[in-house]
Amino acid sequence: MIFIENGISRKASWSHIQSLYEWDKPTRYFNIFTKLTDAHIVPSKIKKMKVKNCTQVFSRSVGNFMQCLIDAGSSVLTKEAEGTAKAFLFFAKLLDNFNGSSSHAQEGHELRCVTNTSPHHNFWTEAKIFLQTMKFECCTTKQHSVPPSLKNWVWTIFLEILIVLIKISRNEARDFFLLHSVSWCA
């Protein structure tokens, strides 16, 4: 996957998470990612359309740990995996963006309910660029593609955000709006 983050072109690869998973398998004394299984990581075993599995893989803990290993110069993940760590952190934040169930930020979760001054607004600008520049690269032909599901996802997310902003501007959402209560259209 290729994307642009903060004006820098980056590349993410599923092989990086596979390497991390193989390193963290429970054959050692303890494992860090206790919830991750082959059904999360091994392409032939991944259960399609399982949001729970997606959120467990694309999590802050996985992204942050990947970045820590890279920064420490670990042999598990090289500097080449930095794009993958950044992508995981982005998707964790994107998923977090729609989980606001409180008007106050929870520990470790910057995004909460949408208000006129909440950090969502800046994030949405970054997210739009990230998602619109995202392309997938074929391993063998190196050709780039943008699947229709990605285009539809971008539209669905930003149409819902537009609805929220209209409600806030009309004061229909009172002082804040709980994004997790938005009914998703597909």
Automatic annotation (TrEMBL):
A Pfam family matched in the record: TNP-like_GBD
Residues of the Transposable element P transposase-like GTP-binding insertion domain: 10-106
InterPro entries recorded: TNP-like_GBD (IPR048366)
UniProt name for this protein: Transposable element P transposase-like GTP-binding insertion domain-containing protein
